[in-house]
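Supplementary Methods, section 5.1.

A reviewer requested that the exact input to the structure prediction be made available. We therefore reproduce it here, unchanged from the version used in the analyses.
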Amino acid sequence: MHAAPAAAVDADRLWQRLHALARHGAREDGGVDRPALSAEEADAKRTLIGWGAEAGLLPFTDALGNLFLRWDAGDIAAPAALVGSHIDSQPTGGKYDGAYGVLAALEAVQALQAAGMRPRIPVEVVAWTNEEGSRFAPGMMGSAGFAGARDTAEILARRDAAGIAVADALAAQRALLPDIPERPLRRPATLFLEAHIEQATVLETHGIPLGIVTGMQGKRTFRVEVTGEAAHAGTAPRAGRRDALLAAARMALALEALTTDAEDLVRFTIGRFDVAPNAPSVVPDRVAFSIDLRHPEAAMLTRLGDAVAATCAEVAGPCEIAVAELSAAMPQRFHAGLRSALAQAATSLGIASMPVASAAGHDARFLEPICPTAMLFIPCRGGITHHPAESIEPAHATAGAQVLAATLAQLVAA
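The structure derived from this sequence is encoded token-by-token as follows.
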């Protein structure tokens, strides 16, 4: 059963589609800027829907804008096997992050069709909303909302840097894609498979074309707001200043010291720093910054995350602080049976694979608690990602789609 659908994977079609999708939000430097719920993403979804229609897949969406292309097994209400990833990007993103998983899923379904197979249960190719979190924070909103891990109303109220709420951005995208039926947000699923570029160098270093993902390291995110007092840069004496920027800088250094470990397992990042009034001759009165904290062990992630607020308070000086935790996800292991199915499919096709852990977060994190879930990785050159230089090999892209097709044939096809 493995060989026929794998042989039907159209390598040229998959490669051409990856680059066709990258034209939506294309940057002059070869990268992609396709924010969640943007006009560029709507165009990309329209293209996906067109490709799905060629294969007879029925599109629909939900209250958070997740896009599904359904290969039906007769009962429109029956729970489906979900396969996919996301198509939103970072502002300086590449062509393959997320998009590869969606298009490999679509190619796998079409390979099963070409091999003359039918689904025993429905199969849905999915593109989750706002995985990246670059426009609306935190990321993985669509998958988290689908899984019931976050409140829908709270998600819809989130705003981007321009003050646009998720609810308003969704309404604007629905106006651009008016003919997609909407179904309930929280529906049962039989399983979830996600293919993705590795975003690291383990596979490349070992010369292995496929990684079977064992699990995902934990992640906690925070927003810290520092409030001081605006003052004239030329007249306000240093002793009386409540400089929010200097206080925030002290916090950044203290947090860096807190999270530095000899094993280099902690991942601590301040990726966003907003200063107000952001004027050259005014002492800043407000700073807001983000914290992204990750670790593969739950106990350490808990200890470090719980120390964030106290660490900031210790060096706040005369300023006031407010620390809000935006998201928390403990380390997890993916479904042993699905991991075995992916590994067996690779072996049967003569494709070398190895177990790897995911240091990055993915939508699979939120599907794992509600249904059997697994991931496969393909190498990306130099581990470069979230960058226009992001690059993969066509042969690796094909191998991942072949293993995905062979696994689906085993799990869901008649």
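The CA atoms of residues 228 and 319 lie 5 Å apart. These observations are discussed further in the main text.
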